[in-house]
Design a protein that fits this description.
The protein is mainly alpha-helical and about 130 residues long. It has 2 domains: about 1-40; about 40-125, no CATH class. It has 6 helices and 4 strands, in the order E-E-H-H-E-E-H-H-H-H. The protein has helices at about 20-35, 45-50, 65-80, 85-90, 95-105, 105-120; strands at about 1-5, 10, 55, 55-60. Strands 1-2 form a two-stranded antiparallel sheet. It has a two-stranded antiparallel sheet with strand order 3-4. A hairpin with a 2-residue loop joins strand 3 and strand 4. It is globular and about 40 Å long.
């Protein structure tokens, strides 16, 4: 188990035979958990985001090392704009459907958006 001491957020893994593989998996889970829990201000799309987007599409799978940073950036944009993904997608230079598909790679991210939408009496989004 790994813990971010400032926030108390944790990442755990024990399903692999190798201690090093478990540590790497726990670190990846910790990064995703941090991306899900800690919000920052919306800023212009980062160079990493720009590198991973082309023609309104984002190319990054949930297993890639860049995913947690990109997820945090996407969630910051969504949180700053509204429960409607359109403005956040426009800010990030992708289509709303691409943003929803990206968030759906981590089901908890899409669920966060859907909870905010429910509070605003908007329908749930599906991947």
């Amino acid at each position: 188990m790994l813990e971010h001491t400032a926030s108390g957020i944790r990442g755990e893994a024990s399903e692999r035979r190798s201690q090093e593989e478990n540590r790497q998996q726990a670190l990846s889970r910790l990064r995703v958990n941090l991306a899900l829990e800690i919000r920052g201000p919306m800023s212009p799309p980062s160079p990493l985001w720009q590198k991973r987007t082309k023609s309104g599409r984002i190319t990054c799978s949930a297993t890639h090392a860049d995913f947690p940073a990109l997820l945090a950036e996407a969630l910051d944009a969504v949180a700053a704009s509204s429960p409607d993904p359109g403005p956040a997608a426009g800010h990030l230079g992708v289509s709303p459907s691409q943003l929803i598909k990206f968030l759906a790679q981590e089901h908890r991210a899409l669920e966060q958006l859907n909870v905010a939408r429910a509070k605003a009496d908007l329908h749930r989004l599906r991947p």
